[in-house]
Every structure is written in structure tokens, then in C-alpha cells.
Amino acid sequence: MKNTEKNIQTAEEALREALNKMPEHHHDTHHHAQEMDSTRIPLAGHDQKPMDHGHDHPIKEDHAQHHPMKEEHGTGHHEHHAMTDHMDSHEGHRGHHEMMIQDFKKRFWVVLVVSIPIILLSNMFQMLLDYHLVFPGSKFLLFALSTLVFFYGGLPFLKGAVSEAKTKKPAMMMLISLAIIAAYLYSTLTTFFIAGSEFYFELSTLILIMLLGHWIEMRSQMGASKALEELMKLMPDVAHKVDEHGAILDVSIKELLRGDRIMVKSGEKVPTDAKVIDGFSAVNESMLTGESVPVEKSPGMQIIGGSLNGNGVLIAEVERLGEETYLAQVIKTVQEAQAQKSKSQGLAEKAAGWLFYIAVFSGGLTFLYWMINGNTPLAMERMVTVLVIACPHALGLAVPLVNTVSTSIAARKGLLIRNRTQFEEARKIRRIVFDKTGTLTMGEFGITDTVPQEGVQAEELLQIAGSLESLSDHPIAQGVVRDVKAKGIALKIASNYENLTGAGLKADLEGETYYILSPGEMARRNIAYDVAGFEQLSSQGKTVVFVTKEEELLGMLAVADLIRDTSKEVIAQLKKMGIESIMMTGDHQKVADYVGRELGLSKVYAQVLPEEKSKHLQELQKDFQKVAMVGDGINDAPALATADLGIAIGAGTDVAMETADVILVDSDPRDVLNLIKLSKATYRKTIENLIWAAGYNILAIPLAAGVLAHQGVVITPAIGAAVMSVSTIICAVNARLLKIA
């Protein structure tokens, strides 16, 4: 287990405090959007009508309600500036990266031009193409041009070597610097003082290829974090503010305050997180949550800053600004995850550090061997090649690049990684414990069974039930009405509505009195019904209600917290992957058993209090199996802290959940599957890169040293530089090929 008892107790205390502060839940009714002109709009009104209802139904103890925090208006400007500073900081980092790319590009082209005469004047190239180009002072011209290449083209590597020396972490820059310094000094000596072959050709081509390799590599690295840059561009600069008189003013987002009303026109980006108070539209949130289908928005629903409005016009009230917005939290979470070092990254960095010493030792040994054999130029060439071809950079980049790409992919899919190490360990998960309500089920009631009496049409029964329930705010009533409307059945106007406390309700339709009654009230009124059918439905954890016309039974309806269409598919897929699926819920045993049977769960825990979930998780961890917990971020805080991997699901725009290792924006259980798949794919790419980087060095260093020189296999310093650069680029490209299978 990754957390201590103290952490669990702290999470439990936070849970109790959150539950104590929760206000009672009321359902708002909203007036429909009115006609709006371009300069003035009517402000929508709101009514609240808390209602009681007489249905008997299971208590859902594991259902979480999220309430946006309320703060003073005066904090708005501060929050936005904080967000702006945060984004400016990232833009500054990006600008620095772009400047470095341009610098390498410029140095490459200058060195390329200067290298042409160096190559033409070099002895090696003349021998290769069988021509003779020597004139008075040619060797001094060759020296002068090579000096320019060394100091101008080699400067980034020499500076990098100084930085590595200061931090006492020698790596690639120091190896390259040692190689080019050795080649330059030896060539200078042969030009002015001693007899021997100069290495000006090798020096210039080596620096040229290194500049090209770094230019390409940095472009690849920048592409890996492009998704984060795209997120930052989503937020518009201007908002249409609606003042107290209904006039529309175009203002900077920096001027918005919490509670302000804004208009979002058709085709515009939403300026900040807000709650719709008037209007209807479909909003595209694909870049933010990974939800490919536009989401229908109506009064009372939240809209996310940066999302794209569809054809409708929305009036919304500002809820979050600056660093509190969903987009800001996503960016912060992604940046923190990318900055974290996983276990494999730490191991790779240590290996890269050791590789420097291995390369220096191998280079020195190579030089001594060929010197003893009486070939000083070859000894120098072999040593330079060994220093150049050893590549700790590929090893050092192998893991960070994969991490950057996987974090960006996850964010685009609505999977926000908060703990890099635990995400990496997700591939080892063997048990997943799901909360029921809102995770495996929809978290809202719907009609599961319609049982009309003989002579009564199912559509007629649904029309009567929907018409009566339309006057109630009870969750069961709302579920019935929603399902009836979804079937295209028109509702009738009910009158003389009366709530029968603990028994049901009654109302008049077209002069006739109808009732919706509980089983207990049916017994009290001595109205006969199909007891066997009722008990069968009831045993499945469904709430059964009866529709009557006076004392005449018209039929019965069964309602329940609907199981998600995708849940069964996810459980089956997890089973194929060797992962056991378990459910914990505060609901009744019969409800839990029914859901468990329907989904094929291996085990269910019912009537579990939030603070008891962590104890059950500890029991499941006793046989050393890795256990993940999927639940909401409030009720399940202690359980998320206890699990080996805590997954908060259905966070919506609230992604600041301290106890979760990974946050899933949507309530779709398929995201749990995607998370496991991404963890496995990330690990696979990491291993591929590490094998390539390590394997390349194991093979390349001996070849560079000349172990096969007598067989005619010789790697020149220039070829060594090319191979080293290619190895790094391969790691970068391979990382960018990462995707969820």
C-alpha cells in the first residue's frame, strides 16, 4: 500500500467535513429561453419547488454531489492574473525552446557552407575521389575554416559540457566536447608541429551531423508537447458580458468576476467555466474531455471555458476564473505529471550517467591499444569515434519523451494523471473495485419494466404515469418523465395534484382521477396485483410502483438506477485481461446482487459506509495483489488513498482531487479500460526505447573501438556521429508513435 494510516485518517476527516458542509439538494425549474436581440436580452428567472414523494426506494448512500465553491467577487482579477502568469511562464519556456531550435538550424547551415571547402581540401576526400587540390597556404586555410567550425558550430556542445561539469553530471555534451577537442587539438598539432594525418574532415562532418541531429531531435521533443500548447490556445480573450440592464458589453476576460452573466453566441468559444441560465445548444468539448459527440446544454448545466458552442445562444453565469477553471487545472495537472520522474526514468538517468564513464574508459583503452600497436593517427581516430558514438543522450531521452507523449494523450482523452509512478504501476493491477452509483450505473432512475394489465396498452400506461409524475421533483419521478418523453409519448396536462406522503401521489387527467401508489398503499387499499411478478422485479433491487384509475389497476412500472450500456463490455474486457472486477456500494444487498449478476462481477459488497471501504480494500490487498479503486472524489476519498491506484471518476470540471492518482473527467467506465491500456502501452514504449538505447551502445562502442578493424569493418567519426544522432531521433519518433490500442 502506498499510503500510511495517517493519510487515510486525514482523508476520512476531510470526507466527514465535506459531508457536513453539503447543502440539501433541490431541483430547479427553469423558464424556457426567450427571444433575444443583438443588444438587449431578458434575464431569466428561477423558481425552486422542493417536493416530497411517496415512493419506496433503496437509499443510495454512495452517490456524490459536487457543489462549486463560492468565493467573493473581488478574487476574480487576482485569479485570472495568476492563470495568465502561469500560461506566460509556459509560453516563455516554449519561446526559449523555439529560439534554441532556430539557433541550431542557423549554426547547421553556416557550418554546412564552411564545411564544403574543408571537405574539398581534406586529404581523405581527395584520396576517396582521386584528385589533387593543394596550393600554397592551403593547409592554413583548412586550419582557419576548421577553427571557425570548431568554435562556432561546436559552441553549444562546449557550453553544454561546462554546464554538465558544474552540476557534476557528465553526459552527452561532455562526450561530444571531448571528441571534438581531441580531434581539433590533434589536427592543429599535425598542421604546425608534428607529422601525421589531420582530422579536419572528421571534425567538420562530426559537428555538422551533431547540429543536424540536435535540430531534428529538438523539433521532435517540441512536437511531443504540442497537445498542451493547443490546450492553452483554446481560451478566448474577449467575453460578451450582460449587465444588470440586459445590455451586452464586450470585455476582456480579465475583467470578468464570479457571478457575472455572459452571452456565448453560436460558433464561439466559451470564455470561462460557467452555468447555463438561459438558452439551449450543443457544445463541442472534444479538445477538453475527449468526448467526441457535442454535449447538449440547457439551463442548470455547466459549460467549460475553451469549449466550442454550437448553433444555439447561451446565457451563463460565471462560476470559475483563472487558476480555478477546468482548463487551467488540466494544464497544471499535465505539467506536473510531465515533470514527475517515474521509477524507469530514474533508472535510465543513472544508466546514462554510468555510460559516460564507460565511454571515457573505453575511449582511453582504445587509444592505448592502437598506440601500442604503433598507429597514432588510427588510435586518435578510434578514440574520437568511441567518444562520439556512445550515446547517453538516447538513454536519457528514452523515458521522458514517452512520459510527455502519454500524459498529453491521456489529457486529450479526459484522463488526468496526477501521480506518474502510480500510473506506471497501473499495468500491474489485478483487481479493480468499482463504486456502483454513477460509475457502473447511470446514477439516475429510469424505467426498466412496463407491465400493463390486460386491455391496457403499454403506451397508454406510460403516458398516464409520465403525466402524473411531471408535477413532481422526486428523482424517480424525473426518471419516469425523461424515459416517457424519450419514447416520443406526449404528456397530458394534469390538475389537482396531491402528494400522498409515504403512499404516492394522485392527480386528475381529463376529468378522471389517477394514482401512482407504493406496494404498501396497494395493500392498505386492498387492490389486487400480480404478487409473483412484483416479487420478481423487487428481488432485482428495482423500485416497483402501481398506476391506478381510482381503484382500478392499470399496470405497474419498475424503475431502477440504470446500468450503463458500456459497463458489461468493460467488465468482460477486464476479465480477458486477467483483472478481477469487484463492486462496493452503500445500496441494499439485493440491488448490489442484481447489478453484480447483470455485469458478471466476481464479488459485491453492499451497504458499505464510505469510511468502511478502505478496510475492505486492505483485506483485498493482503494477498499482495495490486488493487485499484474507482469512485468519486468525495465519498470515496479514504478508499482512493488506500488503493494502490486511486481513480476518481466523473470529476466533470472539478479536477482538484487530492487523494486520486488519476482523474477521469467523464463517468464512462470505458475510460478505466483506456487507462489500463495506456499504462501498458506506455510501459511497452519505454522498454522499446530503453532496449534500443542500451542495445545500440552495447553494439556500437566495440565496433567504434575497432574490434573488427582487421576484418575491414571500420566506423569513422563522421559515421559514428550520424549513427548516434539517428539513435536519438529513433527514440523520439518511437515515443510519438504511442497510442491507446
UniProtKB/TrEMBL annotation:
GO cellular component: plasma membrane
Residue ranges of every copy of the P-type ATPase A domain listed in the record: 234-335
Enzyme class: translocase
Organism: Proteiniclasticum sediminis
Region ranges (Disordered): 69-92
The protein, known as: P-type Cu(+) transporter
Assigned keywords, A-Z: ATP-binding, Cell membrane, Copper, Copper transport, Ion transport, Magnesium, Membrane, Metal-binding, Nucleotide-binding, Phosphoprotein, Translocase, Transmembrane, Transmembrane helix, Transport
Gene name per UniProt: cadA
Record lineage: Bacteria, Bacillati, Bacillota, Clostridia, Eubacteriales
Keyword Mitochondrion among UniProt keywords: no
Catalytic activity: Cu(+)(in) + ATP + H2O = Cu(+)(out) + ADP + phosphate + H(+)
GO MF, any single term: P-type monovalent copper transporter activity
One BP term from GO: copper ion homeostasis
Subcellular location: Cell membrane
Domain of life (superkingdom): Bacteria
Transmembrane segments: 108-128, 140-158, 170-187, 199-216, 351-372, 384-411, 690-709, 715-738
Topology within the bilayer: Multi-pass membrane protein
Entry similarity comment: Belongs to the cation transport ATPase (P-type) (TC 3.A.3) family. Type IB subfamily.
One Pfam assignment: Hydrolase
Keyword Transport: yes
EC number: 7.2.2.8
